[in-house]
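Reviewer 2 asked us to include a model.

Predict the structure of this chain.
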Amino acid sequence: MRITLALIVGLLLAQVARAEPDSFGLGTGRDGVLNLTAGKGLALSVGGPLGKDVAAGGDELVVFSSDFSGGDLVLIHESTGLSPLPDVGNAKGVSLTGAVPLGRWEMARVLVVTASTPATLLLTAPLRYAYTAGRAQVVRVAEYSDVVIEAGARLTVSPWNGKSGGILAMLVSGKVVNEGRIDADGLGYLGGVFRTDVAGLAGCTGLELEQGKGGSERGEGVAGTVSRSGLSTGRGNLTNGGGGGNCAASGGGGGGQGRPNGGQSRQASGGGNAQAPRSGGQGRPQQARPAVASPAAGPSSPPPRRTMSKWG
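Predicted model (structure tokens):
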């Protein structure tokens, strides 16, 4: 499959946003040609959580990562922390337009890195939007001249770790030839972790239930895992994170866009709440369904296509 485009693959959340006036186009090609041959894999992994709140109009980013350099193109993404928290067990669709604009993102160019622990990135232009420490992350956007992924090769990304990861972002000024895989399957929100509970429990029905009473960890979603009551266990989902199970011989809930590390808790049921949106059984994530969004064309010349793939 041969495609010529600028590719941004965001697999946590992919709410389209207009950032500063787009002067980035297809990128500079400063990272050269990426050619992955059969059997090879590459995980793009430069990024880290935002370490300090930044206001709209700010031109500095404090990031817990030492891997950025002057000239880098970065993507700032509000990835987690939906507020206010909805009710546990609510099966309605999840709105991202609360006090925290979850999924908002924009790109910026780094002028210089002025500190290293944590890194302080001075930007070439002010940000259009505000971002919150503990909820946002900063990801380096690779800028390739060409990308060739041969059959049996895979381009992916480092997994979400609760604070950052799970987003694959790149611009390509030339061609993209993909005969292999470009994806971040199973690298998003986390599944419920393993816990050993009291043996022989039965009759556990609570949407929220302490571990010692038979509740297991729910999967992570856009609001995390901890409810307003302070519990992260029980069969009720929290937004798009699957509910854990209750009582004996069951497993943790599936992450909303998650990673298959949840599972097989001896005293918590698997599969999550049947009504939970995007829940996965036994701590496994639901499979991704790619969606494509192409922003409107500018008035001057035909724009590059940007495809956005996200969890369905």
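The chain is about 0% helix and 25% strand. The radius of gyration is 20 Å. We have added this to the supplementary material.
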